Amino acid sequence: MAEDFKTQVEKLRPYLLRYAQLQLRSAEAAEDAVQEALVAALAGASGFAGRSNLRTWLTGILKHKIVDAIRKSSRELQPLPGEDDAAEFDTLFDERGHWSQAPDAWELPEKTAQAFMMREHLGLETAEICKELAITSTHCWVMLYRARMALRLCLQESWFK
Amino acid sequence: MMLPCREVMRKVSQGEDRSLAFGERVALRLHFAICRGCRNASAQLKFLRRAVRRLSE
Predict the structure, then answer these.
(1) How high is the ipTM of this complex?
(2) What is the CATH number that goes with domain A80-161?
(3) Which of A148, A154, B3, B16 could form a disulfide with B7 if both were Cys (CB 3.0 to 4.6 A apart)?
(4) What CATH topology corresponds to A1-77?
(5) Helix axes A2-11, A13-23, angle to 10 degrees
(6) Looking at the complex, does the CB of residue B46 fall below 8 Å from at least one CB of chain A?
(7) A152, B17 Cβ separation under 8 angstroms
């Protein structure tokens, strides 16, 4: 009976490993978390008692081990190479550390910015915005399109790339 | 007749501001089915919208 339980648990190891690997950066850490979860599971086998699906139960234990691992590794504070500086922005500054070209204030054309914030942030309808800014709905849609596409491009180029 | 991506993105944006006609919605669906770029960009516009909306929370 006990042997049988152990076999069933072992069979689920590959699944658990994949689960852990999805969430932990190093394969080693994933392996450790699974190992700890299995040890805990076998020690607490009586707690399982067929109440739920074995895989669900094991995954629940593993989840805790993964959270522990993440918290532990964040305490150890080992920045990944390349993530602890930001040299890609150095060209914005001259050798004395001043802006090579001082940034201008951000200015979407005023009406475009207004329309965008009225629509997206305040949640006003197009009709209300048109009335307020004295523009046609077609004009309003073009401005919103321009603002959204510009913002998307900005994030794409500077943040997600 | 497929809409080009440029028109698709204009309609995606407009879809946030007015209800699109049935034919327009069908055209977008058809286009998304074969165009990953527009699918991604469209999801990104939705993401922006949610982000901006939450500025007030």
Answers:
(1) 0.84
(2) 1.10.10
(3) B3
(4) Rna Polymerase Sigma Factor; Chain: A (1.10.1740)
(5) 40
(6) no
(7) no
